[in-house]
Amino acid sequence: MTKKIAIIGASGYTGAELIRLISSHPEMEITALAANSKAGLAMSTVFPFLRHLDLPTLVTWEQIDFSQIDLCFCALPHKTSQEVIPHIAQHTKVVDLSADFRLRDPAAYKEWYGNDHAAVELQKSAVYGLTEFYRDEIKAASLVAGTGCNAATGQFTLRPLIGAGVIDLDNIILDMKCAVSGAGRSLKENLLHAELSEGYNAYAVGGTHRHMGEFEQEFSAIAGKPVTVQFTPHLIPANRGILSTCYVRGESGEILQAFYDAYANEPFVKVLPFGEMPSTHDVRGSNFVHIGVKDDRIEGRSTIVTVLDNLCKGSSGQALQNANLMLGIEETTGLMMAPLFP
Amino acid sequence: MTKKIAIIGASGYTGAELIRLISSHPEMEITALAANSKAGLAMSTVFPFLRHLDLPTLVTWEQIDFSQIDLCFCALPHKTSQEVIPHIAQHTKVVDLSADFRLRDPAAYKEWYGNDHAAVELQKSAVYGLTEFYRDEIKAASLVAGTGCNAATGQFTLRPLIGAGVIDLDNIILDMKCAVSGAGRSLKENLLHAELSEGYNAYAVGGTHRHMGEFEQEFSAIAGKPVTVQFTPHLIPANRGILSTCYVRGESGEILQAFYDAYANEPFVKVLPFGEMPSTHDVRGSNFVHIGVKDDRIEGRSTIVTVLDNLCKGSSGQALQNANLMLGIEETTGLMMAPLFP
Amino acid sequence: MTKKIAIIGASGYTGAELIRLISSHPEMEITALAANSKAGLAMSTVFPFLRHLDLPTLVTWEQIDFSQIDLCFCALPHKTSQEVIPHIAQHTKVVDLSADFRLRDPAAYKEWYGNDHAAVELQKSAVYGLTEFYRDEIKAASLVAGTGCNAATGQFTLRPLIGAGVIDLDNIILDMKCAVSGAGRSLKENLLHAELSEGYNAYAVGGTHRHMGEFEQEFSAIAGKPVTVQFTPHLIPANRGILSTCYVRGESGEILQAFYDAYANEPFVKVLPFGEMPSTHDVRGSNFVHIGVKDDRIEGRSTIVTVLDNLCKGSSGQALQNANLMLGIEETTGLMMAPLFP
Amino acid sequence: MTKKIAIIGASGYTGAELIRLISSHPEMEITALAANSKAGLAMSTVFPFLRHLDLPTLVTWEQIDFSQIDLCFCALPHKTSQEVIPHIAQHTKVVDLSADFRLRDPAAYKEWYGNDHAAVELQKSAVYGLTEFYRDEIKAASLVAGTGCNAATGQFTLRPLIGAGVIDLDNIILDMKCAVSGAGRSLKENLLHAELSEGYNAYAVGGTHRHMGEFEQEFSAIAGKPVTVQFTPHLIPANRGILSTCYVRGESGEILQAFYDAYANEPFVKVLPFGEMPSTHDVRGSNFVHIGVKDDRIEGRSTIVTVLDNLCKGSSGQALQNANLMLGIEETTGLMMAPLFP
Question: Going from the N-terminus, what domains does chain A have, and what CATH number goes with each?
Fold first, then answer.
């Protein structure tokens, strides 16, 4: 039976991406769309690319009748999600795309986000939404916290390697190149076409990016001891994509084997033949992750390049993958579309 | 029952777009892929974005066993199609994406393409592939000639207006802005990122573009007398999209009505509310056409803006739409995916 | 002797472009920079690309001591200029880059901008700043009104043709393709990289763009009777450049001759050999205008393509060219730099 | 007195950039331009953006009369330079922009380029062209070997740090993001707009990029022992710029001080205030280098971000800076133009 879906925060890019994906999903139906700042508008006004769809008019989230909703995607800004989700009816499962429920430790949350968490009890029930590694917990969850898009990319690279014990944990460098949609539909000078196109730069240099909190939580849990990486994200003049270049100490053969072991049966993660390198345009608009491995001129060191689409596999595609599991739908449903190239 | 499909010319952009679309089509299966210059290669080598698919290795077209093929898409360069298609088995239906079978008059063909047509007899059986206007003929055809991408865009704008008699036929100006994938995967200096990005220009100025032949054939047939338009295409620094700005003498109200009449029941053509204007990014990666109409400051004149994705609705999406009809499949199957934005 | 220069509105793109140009000008020195919203900031904070220059800190325009200023560029938003310029000391010459002093008729100003002009007396002394056509008046002026960037482009195309009487005045179509910096540093969703890149669209369709007021004022004055054109601007995913495609009734030979006659001695306007077409990337960052002419397939009709850099020749370069004249400096000083390609 | 200049290899991007720069240089005059594959063509045909200049027609390099030439820039492909330069008259000074004379050790040359060097004797007289560090040698040289553009970027970052002994030499990671003009005007699929725009990727992963040879030669010489870095370049969808993110073990305060010490009097190198980060668009079209430093979350580690324009400071601007020195002209002449932004 078709599942009834609500999306709160439907006027941002991750909300729009959810609608794009669900519009081709055979077992889901969008029943309610909320965006408080644009309540009353048609979706075709907010996002004309959805003009061909017959979608509900935007309402405020308070206006949604959750009695009919099987699952609600919450694509609100950070700090707003934790205010709203406690008001959603208990029978409605929730996939949150914000950062609010990603960090299990309230102290870590406060360190990275600056405020006390407003829904500490609810946090305890949240499952971290990196599907390939939390599949069973997600199936049973009523609240799943989608990962950061950079955090997802770095984890697809490093989890299998930390888990297999094939790299030196004190020498991990993650250099990430992020397309601009990751910054959302925010009106900032540096996101203007005139300023971003033909320019690129590092930001949050020195380990100050909030997705560091996710890296440390997850990597330390796997390793059984504190693990910190040296991480710099860069803003790149492209619309979709994250490319992570990871520099490690470890044998490339063991690293490649660890990836094959981890991802052999994963429908969305493709490990490339040794030495072959992925490009962001090969996953654009899709739910796939491509990973390439190469040894370095310096013995005992390796480089791993990982790409995914930040809006899809890094956010809304991951959210749908989790929703499928939570609703008892086959995991890949609605997510096997090919990338768009060129 | 699933239909078996071959694609000749699979190493170009239109071939790749066909594979992208068919990979999500529930009633088609790709059985053979040919590209003579790259025979023996895996598709994932030629187009890594297709890495997740289990596709046949590239062969030469002569190696295809057509006994099993229900329909063959021919995405070869102009002049090559007319050499190859006569060799395809008669029971196999053919959708040609080249220019070879678009012009019904061999003299017109020679005028625009410079050579005598090599398959004049076959040409007689070809149906012009603008689905919305040749639907019945296409259902019955064994050879359909896909339209030029610019030619499609201009016709979505002008056919209903010429047909309804609401514009002056001596004063039609078509100014077209074309994204670069329309030029194919050809290695030319002006298509390099360094030269196209941050630059744009007119080309084939003065009515010398070959798609003029299609305009004159089709518009004259509708009008019952010779019709020529003043047409300039421009190369724009974007990958997908055609935007046509059409300047006519005619009342905007009558024009809008003619569009509503023509497209009321068309699943892929959306006529916008009066004065609203479409953008290419609203149809990217999709099979949709968006049309906007506005009256001008000068009385009795109007401007019509039409957008589509040159690789999809302008080429491979149109081809698949036609193939559906030829194979008795519901016309929209595999083509209702939402555009990719941003 | 070096002339002392002030710039009001230095935190926008045209202000920054003025600084770029003047920093290489041997006879000008920047003495004061104002931007009321950013007063107190260093220019290297507002525009880090100017980091290598030793520039005055931003102040409010009220803080400028005009006693030392020979010439002031006013790069303020429309409607603000007319409030500020009356307060500038009389001995200081002014080049205004806003729209405020372009239209000589206060009724026309009100029609296009919606408000009564706040400095009608000052307006009477303003000279329209299209250098190549108002050179003598500009030399003698104390207030010059820079043209709209689209308005400049269209006039380089049409003034010589209307003046020479070689085209039909009732059949002029101007289709313009404008890079995004023309919209300034304004925070709007459609100017975000994620929304503009890979998308383009028409705007102000139907003759509603304000630069129409300049076209009508200037073309009617030359023709000695009312002239209106059918004009549509389009937003293109590039940072600098305007390309105008103009469709006229007239013999291409006569048109080309009219251009040669008009521009033979102009250092910045290059008329291309017959049939050759310009690209925006060939004038980027420069003060040059390139014009190409071609006859059409339809007898008696021609197409003219004109390109310039909207921020330079279309705005700040033009302003500097005018300032040179007003200050008795050789007209081309500081403006002969080659375009930046690629 | 004006110096007479020849450029061999004038049909590529670095040749064109030399012409752009020299066209504003008050003490140089272009006397001969060679490009054997395009001999006989006007430069305005090969590069229409140079249309406003009165330049010599292209000839073959064999046709140049060197008796009148003070200095010749050689912008030929690798391996061709070493064939051509021995034929240039001895009184003509030469700045070579290829890789042919960068590596002092013929064995290192063969390791990285695969062939025996064809002009080993001439190599002995060549000076490595990183102006800021070889100034005196360059003044006295008759042959200067321009550096690789990546090699220059990495050295502006690392030379002062290795020299000052403030970083661990066994833990240096250089992650570089390179705009596409660095690949030259070569016709390759991955350089097409349709494939590069909206996509980015690592290449030459694992220390296989040829600029590694320069790093090892120079860093080892400074350190007095072999130094190797872990280096990955990435192709970014932009036209000009290199951004290097360098991860080191060292105290950020000491690092910043080493930069201040090294670059305090350098006109083209700007060290940013602690924690401030540069963007490629802030140096586009200019000869400037911007460097930013930040400490990391992990104690004792730092990140350094360096940007320059690959075609200008990374190649043709550097070449002109060297030519100035070789000809007794003030070093910064013709090179102080501001960047182009936006």
Answer: 3-125 (3.40.50.720), 150-309 (3.30.360.10)
